[in-house]
Write a structure and sequence with these properties.
Arc Repressor Mutant, subunit A, two-stranded antiparallel ribbon, 6 helices
């Protein structure tokens, strides 16, 4: 049986479908800084955001709003529905933005009339964020553009492969959250 390393101890690891797994994928011989999974995910993210920026700027309806992919991410999170991020602090946690950068981004979206800040009825210190009528009207087209870009990046994949990729990436996020939970314990 293949052993896995769990926080410095060797123990058997069982992955999906009961297959043994090794927790250390890379070693000094196989690790290439520009080609490991983190670098590739980062490059794909940059390319997707660049493509969304380009599509937003070329869209006849959205171009006058001078939207960016970063702004789209905020709009999408606010459109997600009840229980999802509704304050700047919530958004910062969900999308890993710096608080200062988030404030500037929200100022721009508010100036464009796409979002509004309202004082929380439960805590006067807290400002909730919501889409305006204009923001809700622009959201479906932004979503279409984002979906078209995602589909373009997934050309050549089957639906099953795309779902599998999503599963792998979600597993990596779960692993990251597990590491964060252990570090804060």
């Amino acid at each position: 049986m293949i052993a896995s390393v769990v926080w410095g101890t060797k123990s058997p690891g069982v992955g999906i479908h009961g297959v043994s797994v090794v927790s250390e994928i890379y070693d000094s011989a196989s690790f290439q800084p520009g080609r490991h999974v983190g670098a590739l995910v980062s490059r794909v993210k940059v390319e997707i955001l660049t493509a969304i920026d380009r599509e937003l700027s070329q869209d006849k309806r959205l171009a006058p709003l001078e939207m960016s992919a970063a702004q789209w991410i905020i709009i999408a999170n606010l459109a997600a529905g009840p229980g999802d991020p509704k304050s700047a602090a919530d958004l910062c946690k969900v999308i890993s933005y710096d608080a200062g950068a988030m404030t500037r981004m929200l100022d721009r979206l508010e100036a464009k009339g796409l979002i509004r800040r309202t004082r929380s009825s439960q805590d006067r210190r807290l400002m909730n964020l919501e889409l305006t009528e204009e923001g809700r009207a622009a959201y479906p087209r932004m979503r279409e553009i984002s979906m078209a870009v995602a589909n373009r990046f997934l050309r050549g994949f089957t639906k099953a492969e795309a779902r599998q990729l999503e599963g792998f990436l979600n597993r990596m996020l779960d692993n990251a959250q597990g590491v964060s939970a252990r570090a804060s314990a």
